[in-house]
Specification:
The protein is about 70% helix and about 0% strand. It has about 90 residues and is mostly helical.
Length: about 90
C-alpha cells in the first residue's frame, strides 16, 4: 500500500510542526558539538547534572535522538530544574 506524503510527514515530525521546526533545533545543537570546542558553562553544568540523574539523562538522549522534541528538553525551566536538583548550579 503506497504511503501518502501526509502519512510520511506524521511519522517523522511532531504533530503540528513543520520539518524545519522539528529538525532545525537538533541541527543547531549538533552543529555546536561539531566545533570540537568545550561546551559553554551552562551546558557543562547540565552535563554534570545528568551524571547523577538517570531520568533526565534518558530524556536528554531521547531529545538528541529525535524521540522527543529537543526544545522541550532544552527549555530553560527544564534545564534549571535538572541543574538545581543536582546542586550543580550552586
Amino acid at each position: 500500500m503506497p504511503v501518502s506524503p501526509d502519512d510520511s510527514h506524521s511519522r517523522t515530525h511532531w504533530p503540528g510542526t513543520s520539518p524545519e521546526e522539528t529538525s532545525a533545533p537538533l541541527y543547531h545543537f549538533t552543529h555546536e558539538f561539531a566545533k570540537l570546542e568545550p561546551p559553554p558553562p551552562q551546558m557543562q553544568q547540565l552535563f554534570g547534572a545528568l551524571r547523577h540523574n538517570q531520568e533526565a539523562t534518558n530524556q536528554f538522549f531521547a531529545a538528541i535522538s529525535g524521540s522527543m522534541p529537543l526544545p522541550t528538553f532544552m527549555n530553560p525551566e527544564n534545564i534549571g530544574r535538572i541543574v538545581a536538583a543536582s546542586g550543580a548550579g550552586t
